[in-house]
Every structure is written in C-alpha cells, then in structure tokens.
Amino acid sequence: MKDWAFGLTMTLAGMGVTLITLYILTLVIRLMDRLFPYKEEKKKEGK
Fold first, then answer.
1. 3-state class (DSSP) for residue 31
2. I need a labelling partner for 39 at 20 to 30 A (CA). Which of 3, 15, 23, 31 fits?
3. How far is the C-alpha of 25 from the C-alpha of 21, rounded, in Å?
4. Distances from the Cα of 31 to the Cαs of 2, 17, 20, 37, 40, in angstroms?
5. Taking the C-alpha atoms of 13, 18, 21 and 22 in order, what is their torsion angle to the nearest 10 degrees?
6. DSSP H helical segments within the chain, as ranges?
7. pLDDT, position 45
8. What is the spatial distance between Cα 31 and Cα 18, in angstroms, rounded to a whole number?
9. CA 18 to each of CA 12, 21, 40: distance values in angstroms, whole numbers, following the listed order
10. What contacts 4, CB < 8 A, 6 or more positions away?
C-alpha cells in the first residue's frame, strides 16, 4: 500500500505542477498581448 500512496502522491503533484505551469503560461501570453497589441496590415491598392 505504501507504493500506491507514493504513486498517487506523485500523480497529484505532477498534475498540480502541470496546471500551475499552464496558468502561468496563460498569464504571460495575456501580458504580452497587452504589451504588443495586434496591428492589422494595410493592403495596398494596385491598378
């Protein structure tokens, strides 16, 4: 049973770290979106 407890603990810790990492990545992406907003390119009219 000790091995099961260790395995479940490591599984929960790994899932927690993964979710925290994704949340931090989301915050960084939102920050960069505010710092560098998207500018649409102007198309040149030919002829």
1. helix
2. 23
3. 6
4. 43, 21, 17, 10, 19
5. -140
6. 2-35
7. 72
8. 20
9. 10, 5, 34
10. none
* Tens-binned pLDDT, residue by residue, of the chain (47 aa): 899 999 999 999 999 999 999 999 999 999 999 999 888 888 877 65
In order of 31, 34, 36, 43, the CA distances from 40 in angstroms are: 19, 15, 12, 9
SS3 (DSSP) at 39: coil
* Tokens of residue 13, six digits: 């810790």
Three-state DSSP class for 8? helix
Residues in the chain: 47
